[in-house]
Amino acid sequence: MLFPAINRSIASTVLVIGGLLSIVQVMPKYPLLLGERLFPHGGWIQVMLAMLYGGWLCHKMQDREERPKWRKRAWLLFSIVFFGQLMLGIFADPIFLMSGKLHLPIPAVILAGPIYRFEGLFMPILFISTLLLSGPAWCSQLCYFGAFDAWNARGKLERKMFPYHKQMRYSVLFLVMAGAFLLRISGASGVVATAFGIATGGIGLLVMLLFSRKRRKMVHCSSYCPIGTLVSCLKYLSPFRVRLTAGCCHCMACTNACRYDALHKEEIKKGKIGYTCTYCGDCLSACKHEAIEYYFPGLRPANAERLWIVITVVLHTCFLMIARI
Ligand code: SF4
Ligand code: SF4
Ligand code: SF4
User: Cα(65) to centroid of ligand 2, in Å?
Assistant: First the structure.
């Protein structure tokens, strides 16, 4: 074939990123791309750089052996750029801030904020849109916070599952929603609500440092974060799936490849992957029987996998360029 599927994926990624960011560059009155704010026509240079970066990352993500490494590096880069720009905006020059209206950069606030304020649906709509487009990719490469959990969970994996993780995550989800609602109906001030948000994020950081680091699993994301819990429940809105095939011989070689605690002996024996799966693809190279595959209706597994990578890299690159406070 003159133009193999991988090259088509890279070309699609580059073109879609170029198209989307060109709209972002041309449409709004206030420049959303930092390059345009820093110097005239800098936005176009940023669009070109984003296209190059997206094409390169798509190429790296096609290699199953290399994917875990590049996925995590790209994710960490996004978080560093996100928080780095926030710090520059606060301490150096407001030009680095997107709107000048600061919000707490803590995932739980995506849920608690609109409940407390009874308004502010932009983030929930963005969140649901990514769920529709790429399933749970929010928690494998798109969230500004989870990269730190992935970083804390690095190293040789321990097999043991985090006990009571289901009970813990649903309890946290309930407490965050109930807490935000109580703050609202009690007329609590913004200062009190902010303290509630900071406490939620602070406990999350402690979970990363105390548990993710020790167990080398993403305990914060798979057992604590309320947005991660929502992602696990709502990811089925997207037609994408990662599933086991009939070729699985229950060798259990893959159980050590998942940082999200989604590959357990008991579930694999039933032919299932755990509900915390984020479709990250880290485990695919661990299975020498090709028994883990991506699924999208009407597509062969290899094409479903490429499509997921294209969509995720496009979203990641656009978030890297635009997602700011
Ligand atoms: S679980 Fe929470 S912190 Fe982790 S990646 Fe998902 S939204 Fe972000
Ligand atoms: S998915 Fe693959 S590695 Fe995992 S148990 Fe089945 S055959 Fe073994
Ligand atoms: S089961 Fe595989 S695809 Fe799902 S989260 Fe774990 S490593 Fe990623």
Answer: 16
- pLDDT above 70 (res 158): no
151 lies in some domain? yes
Give the pLDDT confidence score for residue 126 in this predicted structure.
87
Closest C-alpha to 9, from 282, 319, 311, 321: 311
Which residues form the domain of 1? 1-98+298-325
Domain count, the chain: 2
For residue 324, the CA-to-ligand 2 centroid distance in Å is 40
C-alpha distance from residue 57 to each of 15, 79, 86 (Å): 14, 16, 24
The atom number, within ligand 1, closest to the CA of 107 reads: 7
Q: Is the pLDDT of residue 122 over 90?
A: no
Q: Which residues contact 128 (CB under 8 A, 6 or more apart)?
A: 234, 237
Pair (233, 139) in one structural domain: yes
210 C-alpha to ligand 2 centroid (Å) = 30
State the pTM of this model.
0.93
Which segments within 235-307 are labelled E, that is strand? 241-244, 292-295
